[in-house]
Amino acid sequence: MIIPKEPKLTVEQLSAVTAIVEEYDCKLQVIIGHHRSVYAVLGEERKTVMVNRILGLDFIDRFDAVDSPFKLMDSSSELAQHKIVLGNHIVGEGPFVIAGHCTIDPKNPNLFIESAHAVKEAGAKAIRGGVWKPRTMPYSFQGDDASVKILMEARSQTGLPVDTEVMDEHQLRIAVEAGVDILQVGARNALNYSLLKSIGQMTQNKKIAVLLKRSMGMGPVNEFIAAAEYIAAAGNPDIMLCPRGTNPTMDGYRNYPDESITPLLKEKTWAPVIVDPCHSVGRAKYVPSAALAAIAYGADGVIIESHLDPQKGIGDDPKQSIKPAVLKQLITDIEAIWAIKNRIVLADN
Ligand code: PEP
Ligand code: MN
């Protein structure tokens, strides 16, 4: 939409603008208002060179694009009805709870397998387990390629899909070859566009979903959706958006809780939202409330760190994993909030 400085373009100005847009295979439509006229560009209106040339004309005030920049992720795009199927769950139809250890301890595989069975029994629909970990200190445990086998063993014993974070192409290749169902892009890599592109390319048509975390520094919601657009544009639209708390932190919490952005995301994009309350609040005792808040805001599910014996865990498990018994009660409560939320939505329509 072109807005001139004066209430309308002169005949000469109109023909100058028309000549430019036609060079880029677009058409100009004049919208005559009571006080002023505006000029809609019909066609691919985001061509940078065309926009810059129009903005370079000294009688033009603004160029407001009306097309969404998100060709694939926008809620009105052709993918608006796209559904992600994981195991026997269609994401969006009933709460999707992913649960399991923050980190798989390769020295204690049985503990992970036991937790996997326990979270399944508690009602989880998928299992998480960090094979590779992004750690603040280079001397902390970084994960182990060998843990992929343990993750896949949990998959075959429980029959549930599994989730793990990948941080580079080496890990991506191993995870894809092993048959991991959900690849997590962590908060630290949510702006790593090369990785996002590689993930989109390598998971194309493989029925592998991507859980894209919100980066801790991400402000505008559009920046988050743009990161998802990278993955979709590279070939895989099976993307779930995961708010996980941002910086600066809230005093007493690990990050600044951001489950409240869920309705904003749902307005702009069709992608399901799976909130991570554990990395947001960072303390096991606050996790259930944050998870319920996420569902009340309209999230399609949550990803929860859960461990049979958190004090024996590594990574984040000792501080923010909830026990499977707590998870079981939480999932019952999530189902209740889900029903209330759906009632509100139905009443709204
Ligand atoms: C995790 O899920 O264990 C993790 C490291 O998450 P984030 O990328 O959100 O910090
Ligand atoms: Mn963690």
User: Which spans have pLDDT < 50 for at least 5 consecutive residues?
Assistant: none
Per the principal axes of the C-alpha atoms, what is the gross shape?
Answer: elongated
Q: How are strands sequenced across the largest beta sheet?
A: 12-11-10-9-8-7-14-13
Helical percentage: 25-40%
Rg over alpha carbons: 24 Å
SSE succession = EHEEHEEEEHEHEHEHEHEHEHHEHH
How much strand content do the residues show?
A: 15-25%
Measure the end-to-end span. Answer: 31 Å
The total count of helices amounts to 12
Mean pLDDT: 95
Largest beta-sheet details:
8 strands, parallel
Bound molecules: phosphoenolpyruvate, manganese (II) ion
Count of DSSP E strands? 14
| SS-derived structural category | alpha/beta
How would you sum up this structure, described in words?
The chain is an alpha/beta fold. The protein contains twelve helices and 14 strands. The protein has helices spanning 11-23, 48-55, 109-122, 147-158, 169-178, 193-202, 221-233, 262-268, 277-281, 287-296, 317-320, 324-348, and strands at 2-4, 27-32, 37-42, 60-63, 85-86, 89-90, 96-100, 126-128, 162-165, 182-185, 209-213, 239-242, 274-275, 301-305. It has an eight-stranded parallel beta sheet. Strands 1-4 form a two-stranded antiparallel sheet. Strands 2-3 form a two-stranded antiparallel ribbon. Strand 10, helix 6 (193-202) and strand 11 form a beta-alpha-beta unit. Helix 3 (109-122) runs parallel beside helix 4 (147-158), helix 3 packs parallel to helix 12 and helix 10 (287-296) runs parallel beside helix 12. The model has no long low-confidence stretch (mean pLDDT 95).
